[in-house]
Amino acid sequence: MARCQHLRRLLSSAAARVAAPMPAWCFPQSTGTSAQSARIRELGRLGRLSEAREVFDAMPFHDIIAWNSMISAYCSNGMPDAARSLADSISGGNLRTGTILVSGYARAGRVRDARMVFDGMPVRNTVAWNAMVTCYVQNGDITLARRLFDAMPSRDVSSWNTMLTGYCHSRQMVGARNLFEKMPERNMVSWTVMISGYVLNEQHGKAWDMFRMMHSEGISPEQPNLVSVLSAISNLGNLNILESIHVLVHKAGFERDVVIGTAMLNVYTRGVNMLDTAVKFFEGMPVRNEYTWSTMIAALSQGGRIDDAVAVYQRDPLKSVPSRTAMLTGLAQCGRINDARILFDQIPEPNTVSWNAMITGYMQNEMVDEAEELFNRMPFRNTISWAGMIAGYAQNGRSEEALVLLQALHRNGMLPSLSSLTSSFFACSNIEALETGKQLHSLAVKAGCQFNSYVCNALITMYAKCRNIGFVRQLFDRMTVKDTVSYNSFITALVQNNMLEEARDTFDNIPSRDVVSWTTIISAYAQADQGNQAVEIFRSMLQEHELPNSPILTILLGVGGNLGACKLGQQIHTVAVKLGMDSGLIVANALISMYFKCGSADSLKVFDSMEERDIFTWNTIITGYAQHGLGREAIRIYQQMESAGTLPNEVTFVGLLHACSHSGLVDEGRQFFKSMSCDYGLTPLLEHYACMVDLLGRAGDVQGAEQFIYDMPIEPDAVIWSALLGACKIHKNVEIGRRAAAKLFSIEPSNAGNYVMLSNIYSSQGMWDEVAKVRKLMKEQGVNKDPGCSWMQIKNRMHSFVTGDEEHEQIHDIHATLRELYTLLKAAGYVPDTEFVLHDIDDEQKESSLMYHSEKLAVAYGLLVTPKGLPIQIMKNLRICEMEIVRVVIFGDKLSRHQRVLYTLSPHTQGHLQGNNTADDNATMLKDLRLLQILASII
User: Fold this and answer.
1) Vertex 179 angle, CA 177 and 181, to 5°
2) CA angle at 114 for the pair 111 and 120, rounded to the nearest 5°
3) Are 434 and 466 in contact, with CB atoms under 8 Å apart?
4) Which of 360, 601, 618, 808 is the most exposed place for a label (fewest CB within 10 A)?
5) Triad 57, 58, 62: Cα angle to 5°
6) Residues of 161-183 as b/e, b for ≥16 C-beta within 10 angstroms?
7) Rounded distance between C-alpha atoms, residue 497 and residue 212, angstroms
């Protein structure tokens, strides 16, 4: 077995040229090889392995330092198998050789191979033991690390510090603190590890307390722990503490220490609002190095001040590779990719970091071919180069190429890095390549990194996307270390597989939640149409003093819009303003959409106040006007968008055609449909054809709408036939309605709405036998009509009603109000329209059945509990029926003289208060406006 493993290592490492094994003591110790060994180490650090190997092979003889230098070069560049093969050539080398191999396998995440090397070492010193403990620590197995630590024959302070690091990285700060208290000896590293651990675990106050404790024990701070505590201070946001550290730095004689100065600059550059202070500090620094300049350039670039970053770069006297790399990265991030490439080409000898930065820039700007061309020209590559390309392919929708590149990496004798593996799992998720994902999972097992938290989290996501929840459970249950990301991934997997209750149970039991945890569970309830529950979880989030992010606010604004809960939306808007997120594009777009859905003119205020708009902004405002039947306004906004230089997309034209349909603008609609392909080269989709059918049908040209469907170049779907059936219902066209319904019954036989529309067409013509046949067909097909439900928000509570509701706590008062209202209406000359009510009951029963529809119950309740003069808004889950539905409608300023209005509304009249209307529409409008006058005088 050992021989087979040895042969596999030889075959997988083309870079290693194996000679006959010789014992390490045969190699002379010569100072003449020190220069070549140093050169090998330098080339290895730069990732130039082929050149390092050339230097090694050209040496007249090799001492153990040279061998270890070459072995270390392989290990540091992700090629531990090549290093192992080279080590086998000298019968394993010496203690240093084995330790290098253990560390190399540790960095590659191959714990099992590292342990095999460790167990095979004939002699082990404390350094070797520390390397193996570090291996477990680096790969997240704190249990085995502690077991090995306890078994060590002797320990030094480095052993204790390594174990401390393990506890800190596994977020077990209580265990770390207990170990820290037991240490027989501490050095500056011990204090630094603890401070850094608290920072890592976002316990910044405790990090500051640990630093103060160190200082109180008379231990003078040194550069490393000053840098660590500065990281804590940057997150505390307390400038007074920063100033006190500034004073301490001067007293300790570090005022000219460029590393500490750069760390302080980092604190100032953490927040965009502190950039001016950062610039002032930067200008006052007595000493700067290449990292100081690059830090300032990067901070300004990331803060959106690219011109200021360029100005700083131009003042840089050295213009070192780090500065140039920071500058080209900033240029690429803001879309100035051509300028970034010019700067890259000006670097005399770009290092691997510069090449990788340029490739990443191309990938960020979706220029995958250019990144590929650059990657192929790289004189040398490191694991980050391969990982960057694989990630870029996966993130730009070219997942198959990402997997092909991973295969090429493996063929070159290199096992993929953790980053390459996780990106490859992401690629498998994108294309739901379950079998390929399983093969990669096997590769991760062979590489010994199957228990790494990053790999496990990526595997959970991959198996969840591939709908294999069984594998997800196994992975999660077997994870030795579960961090917050692991729990979040598992919750997402459960949500994707419609297991919301289990997802909630997992969320409730997370040891430590972050904002992603809250976002995931709130989004899950919102997507499951449980908006009230999503709001309750948000309230719990605020009670736990966790601040929401933009995605959470966007989700809740969507909930408010879908529920028609304008007050909820306003409350979320207030939160966004307090957090300074209301001006962000994503939140602002969500605000516009929410206010439109709630019928509020505040949508226009948000739109007018926006300093920046994207295509989603324009589409949202166009669609909002369309939903309210304001076709002319939608067209006006479209014209503004054109003037602003924003190109429309397919969604834009859906909104425009919808607006024209609901405003009777037939000619305009035809022109927009033609403009799509002629002016912008956009191919009409099914949604656009559906809008055209709706446009023609609403305008009364039902035959033209049917012929339009038959002339379509693509197969019509259910939405298109449903639009035609709806037009037939409006205009009572039995024959075409029957044909459209037949198509719908074959496409979606379980959709109750189609049967109901056909039944209404028959009932409008008194064809009661046909109505009975439709109802019989529904029964045979097992189709049930969803009950109509109306709801409204009163203060912070949602009230819902269904037809014939008897459950509401004030139902008797509601019924009494309805009877009183009908008495007043009938006295004023109002006659209920019972056209669609069953024919086999008397007129009194027909009127009674109309009285207790869900919308009317909601109206009555609104009249009971809301102050006079306050508009009432009601939402409904189904379309508005034509059976004399009394509904509250808010039309902005159009009806401002009626502070609240009851309005008889049917689908073909909604939104037709303006625009080009048919004769039937105008006749219905006159009837409706007459009712408005009656109600305005009554209420």
Assistant:
1) 70
2) 140
3) yes
4) 601
5) 65
6) bbbbbbbbbbbbbebbbebbeee
7) 49
